[in-house]
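From the pipeline queue, job 12 of 40. The input is one protein chain; the requested action is below.

Action: predict structure.
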Amino acid sequence: MKQQIKITLLFWLASSGLFGQEVKISFPQLAGKEVKIYYFAGAKVDSVVSATDAKGSAVLKIPLADYCGMAFLKAGDAGGIEIVISGKETKISCATAELNIETVDFSASEENILLKRLFTEASHNLQLQEWLQSVGRFYDTEHPFYIAVGMELDSVRQIIGKMETEAALSPFYAARYYALNNFMNRLFEADRQADKMGALAIQHEMETTLDIAVLYRTGQLWESVHNYYISLFNRTGKEDKHLQYAKSILRTLDRLSSPLYEAYLAGCIAEMERFKWLDSRDAVIAHVLERNPNLIRDAK
């Protein structure tokens, strides 16, 4: 009898919308299309599939009541977009037959309004910054045009700084995701330039303050951070780079709890095996096994 009551209660919760989070879409020009959402947990990807009705409407339900993170929404062959899913309900609409960041309407989702604005403005400002830096190289430092370019470059940098401050103060997940992309940009540049000082700053941030909980729900960014972080040690490290990378993993793990601990560990093990840093892998595994023999089984 108790089991029957429990099953009935779970069915009622699911049917009433208390289980899971709904993504409501309205795509009038995309009636009868398959729609699919991919959502993430570390390297793991799950998905939910539905189809738009004759009016182009559909409801996709992620079966996690507390999911807060990135997702990728795809509509048949019409394209796809990254969105933030946060809260009980997320509404997305598109009035055209193509689904992309330019055509989508996020007006019913504060998270996604911020996501679109931050990344649109960031892309514009970074392109302008690169152009100004490139143009400035062709002129002598005393040339009036070089001075004018320098003033404009300072202005662009101030705008970028203000955006980073805004993101740091914002309570929205989109702002945290924006900050993680900035971290990824710094990581990429430090790796590309083999910048040892930049590498040390990146390492300190990874081990002490980087928001792994937010990174856990980012999908491709999770993979990219892992890929470039080990590469950074390969480019800037010394003879003991394998050992230094292993120590860095363990320092980061020390501040994580389940499921972030297991997911981060699994990601690092995958990278060490890809690079064939098997001595690093074995050192990390030995340390983890010493503390908790069950964790390594779950991580692999």
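Job complete. The mean pLDDT is 87.
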